[in-house]
Design goal:
Elements: E1 2-8, E2 12-18, E3 24-28, H1 33-43, E4 46-51, H2 57-60, H3 63-69, E5 74-78, E6 90-92, E7 97-100, E8 103-109, E9 118-122, E10 125-129, E11 132-133, E12 136-137, H4 145-156, E13 163-166, H5 171-182, H6 186-200, E14 208-209, H7 210-216, H8 225-230, H9 240-253
Helix pairs in contact: 5-6
């Protein structure tokens, strides 16, 4: 399977997933319709499916336009979002399989950002929407710290070589935040500098890898003594979920 990141809107990513054996493809989170059609036509592949990670408009804003052009598109999303993604044709639950040509993926329910957030895992490629970002994670609009922490733990259980395709280009700000809580981690500093250079050159920072995230993303490092020390004395002995909550609250207030 080949994956093509599509920069959309202000800082969103959509992704075109192509089965090379069949020429069939799917789009994850169609923020805008035009970049999707343009890429599919340029590759001479046939778009058949839409995989939604959650219901927010900045991730499905192009869906209606896609359906205007191709009404037979299959639209997938988590079952609890059926009333919020009104064009959904296929409802999903945790552990369900999805197919693109000869490529099979698995659905990972990842509540936290929203109650119906899901990730799609295709043989070493994980599409995380707003659950996991490069160097960060999504805000908790509908879920609890416990839910998001659990969702991130599910992701951490995947192979470390897994490529992470996230929904927004937030990596520079996220890594700048990581520097405020774990500056003595040389891998954090190295990634921060690498990300800054990519952004300066207008290159995407997606995909990252799970090992990158585990080594440098503070939200996957709640057991780090350096992070706990930066959060204050009380954080040294509290639970990982409480550390996550403190990190998320501090990140909400952080600006670059």
């Amino acid at each position: 399977m080949k994956v093509f990141p599509l920069a959309c809107s202000f800082d969103n990513y959509s992704y075109l997933l192509v089965c090379e054996q069949t020429g069939l493809c799917a789009v994850v989170d169609p923020t805008e319709a035009y970049p999707v059609w343009q890429k599919a036509e340029g590759l001479s592949v046939h778009l058949t499916k839409v995989f939604c990670t959650h219901h927010h408009h900045d991730h499905i804003g192009g869906l209606a336009d896609l359906l205007d052009e191709q009404p037979d598109l299959e639209v997938y999303g988590f079952h609890s979002d059926e009333a919020r993604i009104v064009d959904m044709t296929h409802t999903l639950r945790n552990g369900d399989s999805v197919q693109i040509g000869e490529q099979t993926g698995k659905v990972l329910h990842s509540p936290g950002h929203t109650s119906g957030s899901v990730c799609y895992h295709f043989d070493g490629h994980l599409f995380t929407g707003d659950t996991l970002f490069g160097g960060g994670c999504g805000r908790l609009f509908e879920g609890s710290p416990e839910q998001m922490h659990s969702s991130l733990n599910k992701i951490q259980a995947l192979p470390e070589s897994t490529k992470i395709y996230f929904g927004h280009e937030y990596s520079e700000t996220n890594m700048a935040f990581a520097m405020t809580v774990e500056a003595e981690n040389p891998l954090v500093r190295e990634r921060f500098n690498r990300v800054k250079e990519l952004v300066k050159l207008a290159f995407p920072t997606a995909p990252s890898t799970l090992i990158d995230e585990k080594q440098t993303n503070p939200f996957l490092r709640c057991d780090s003594p350096l992070i706990r020390e930066s959060l204050g004395e009380n954080a040294r002995t509290c639970s990982d979920v409480e550390v996550f909550r403190l990190l998320r609250e501090r990140r909400n207030r952080f600006t670059l």
